[in-house]
Design goal:
The complex is a heterodimer of chains A (about 250) and B (about 220).
Chain A (H helix, E strand, L loop, with lengths): L6 E10 L2 E11 L4 E5 L6 H7 L8 E6 L2 E2 L13 H7 E4 L11 H11 L5 H14 L15 H13 L5 E5 L7 H16 L3 E5 L3 H7 L2 E6 L2 E6 L1 H6 L4 H11 L1
Parallel strand pairs in A: 3-8, 3-9, 6-7, 7-8
Antiparallel strand pairs in A: 1-2, 1-4, 4-5, 9-10
Chain B lengths: L5 H5 L2 H34 L3 H15 L3 H16 L5 H26 L3 H9 L4 H31 L11 H12 L2 H33 L1
Helix pairs in contact in B: 2-3, 2-5, 2-8, 3-5, 4-5, 5-7, 6-7, 7-9, 8-9
The chains are: A alpha/beta (about 250), B mainly alpha (about 220).
């Protein structure tokens, strides 16, 4: 029997003035599922993943988190869930890490739990040290972000997001800004999270990684889902001409 | 050759000290109020509401584009005629000094907040913080560092601007110097003492600002 999805999105649209970037996207995210979103730049995939935690407010569409309707701007008084509550449950990592430069690594990870969840310092630091250990940075707890490599920064950012105990993790091109030799260490952390059962949505250009780790691959092109399915099907037997061309550029 | 005679002037040294104290009091008062006005202005200009943006902008431009001396005179001589009440000189002076420096602080604060990368706010929101929490815990601590050199610079100017209060007979250092001079007819000595006192008040402040800026640059 299929359990109800964590996130359920229907007919999601997003416009900037006259420009419609997302033209009606449906997506269900199941517990424990790993979804990779691929697509050419400018296709709307980044905008879409940012809509999943309401960093971009959708123009229209329905958005449910478990059985609750999400209303980002509180216009819908009957809605049970605001953007802030959603974001506590949906973690995110960014292409450019966005670590807090004035805080140490440990403080970066504890800030959310301290401010938002009102945990005690001891409790927050215990979780943080545990998570830093998991991403292999236990000894960097007292360093500042400026003293870290890109790969280390991204791993801290992952620990920071995990400290909120999210039900879903979003990754927006988290390896795109890294030097090639640092990509592996971040992918390794993501792989372990996936194996550990974390529900994940990734926008990525790492095709081999997407094929290996994802349960489902979604190809977004020109603001719609142009193709989706099991990684092997989508990557090896693309049906649409657009996806064929897109993949070809990667295989060259 | 001019025959220096500090003795006569220094007989009134307590007047200089009173003046310096008054200068200090108006500086502290107007900087404190100015920070409040500046913060309100900066947040109004950064808000989504156009009416707040326009109101704040109008206030800033009026106070930035007219001379402080005119503002002080206007508040003391003209405003009471409009309102039909008398305004004490200390109130007119303090209000105008504060509003004047607040209009500049507003720009400094806004600039500091704007200089923080948008990704910082997004990362704060992404861990579930509200907009206000993101501002308080993440953006402001970084913005303050960026604002501080310009803030201190403006505050140094503010100390000197209190000298304009002499025009409405507030007994700050410049006014007191004027008083001593008219009793002793020793302008050279009187105004030299005033200058030395202003310098002694401000030089440590500018040194601190330099020192602080160097330290900040190292931690970046």
């Amino acid at each position: 029997m299929k359990t109800p999805p964590i996130l359920s999105i229907r007919e999601l649209r997003k416009s900037y003035g006259q420009l419609e970037v997302l033209k009606g996207i449906d997506l269900d995210v199941q517990q424990g599922e790993v979804i990779a979103i691929i697509g050419p730049s400018g296709s709307g995939k980044s905008t879409f993943i940012r809509c999943l935690n309401m960093l971009e407010i959708p123009t229209s569409g329905s958005f449910r988190f478990h059985d609750r309707h999400v209303s980002p701007d509180f216009k819908d008084k009957a809605a049970a869930l605001g953007a802030g509550t959603l974001r506590r449950k949906v973690g995110m990592c960014f292409q450019h890490f966005n670590l807090f430069p004035h805080l140490t690594v440990l403080e970066n990870v504890t800030k959310g739990p301290l401010v938002v969840l009102r945990q005690t310092r001891a409790e927050a630091e215990e979780t943080a040290r545990d998570l830093l250990g998991q991403v292999g940075l236990a000894e960097k707890a007292d360093a500042y972000p400026s003293q870290l490599s890109g790969g280390q920064k991204q791993r801290v950012a992952i620990a920071r997001a995990l400290a909120m105990h999210p039900e879903v993790m979003l990754f927006d091109e988290v390896t795109s800004a890294l030097d090639p030799e640092l990509v592996g260490e971040v992918l390794q952390v993501l792989r372990r999270m996936a194996e550990g059962g974390m529900t994940m949505v990734l926008v990525t250009h790492e095709m081999a990684f997407a094929e290996e780790v994802a349960d489902r691959v979604i190809f977004i092109d020109q603001g719609v889902i142009a193709e989706e399915g099991k990684p092997a099907d989508v990557m090896q037997n693309p049906k649409s001409e657009r996806l064929k061309q897109f993949l070809m550029r990667y295989h060259q | 050759m001019y025959n220096w005679d500090f003795y006569t002037v220094l007989q009134s040294f307590d007047l200089f000290l009173d003046g310096l104290l008054t200068t200090f009091e108006y500086t502290v008062g107007s900087v404190a109020l100015g920070v409040v006005f500046g913060l309100i202005t900066a947040f109004a200009r950064l808000s989504r509401f156009r009416i707040l943006q326009i109101t704040a902008r109008t206030y800033q431009e009026i106070f930035r584009c007219t001379p402080l001396l005119v503002q002080i005179m206007w508040a003391y001589y003209a405003l009471p005629m409009i309102l039909g009440i008398s305004i004490p000189n200390w109130a007119a002076g303090l209000a105008m000094l504060s509003l004047y420096v607040g209009s500049f602080y507003g720009e400094i604060f806004r600039g500091g907040i704007n200089a923080i990368d948008k990704g910082q706010r997004e990362a704060a929101l992404a861990v579930g913080m509200s907009g206000r929490q993101a501002m308080w815990h993440i953006i402001m601590p970084q913005a303050v560092k960026k604002m501080l050199p310009a803030f201190i610079n403006q505050s140094v100017i503010q100390v000197k601007n209190t000298s304009l209060l002499y025009a409405i007979s507030i007994a700050e250092l410049t006014y007191m110097t004027y008083v001593v001079n008219s009793e002793t007819y020793r302008p050279m000595e009187s105004y030299t003492i005033a200058a030395v006192m202003y310098f002694a008040l401000l030089f440590p402040l500018t040194q601190f600002a330099d020192h602080f800026e160097r330290r900040m640059r190292r931690s970046d």
